[in-house]
Specification:
The chain is mainly α. Helix content is about 60%, strand content about 0%.
Length: about 120
């Protein structure tokens, strides 16, 4: 599928859903929110979820903001739309950035070396 031109935006919706789930998991842990709390506060607003995760210290998510803002909204899931391969790859990359960033934070497994400036 990744090597052919997608015919519809369904993969982009799936990617938005994965970003939503990762962000909600992070916020549930960090803010002690229930599933109902998350549903009422955010519904499917991936942009608000990303913004609030960044506000709680996940600065790596700023890399994904531009792509996430262009993802189709859940409300548009029944509309037919096309996307190009580049959009799909960018969405997958954003999803990976969000997933890895959330998991690193929640598991305390960030093994990257800190970047140290010139001495």
């Amino acid at each position: 599928m990744l090597f052919m031109e997608p015919k519809d935006s369904k993969p982009l919706l799936d990617t938005a859903m994965s970003i939503e789930i990762f962000c909600k998991a992070f916020l549930a842990v960090k803010q002690n929110l229930t599933e109902d709390d998350l549903r009422k506060k955010y519904r499917h607003d991936v942009n608000a979820l990303i913004r609030d995760c960044i506000g709680l210290g996940l600065s790596d998510l700023t890399k994904a903001v531009a792509v996430v803002s262009r993802l189709p909204r859940v409300e548009d899931r029944y509309k037919t739309a096309e996307c190009v391969l580049g959009e799909l790859w960018q969405a997958y990359r954003a999803s990976l950035v969000v997933g890895v960033t959330v998991l690193r934070s929640l598991t305390f497994r960030d093994c990257r070396k800190p970047i140290v400036g010139p001495r």
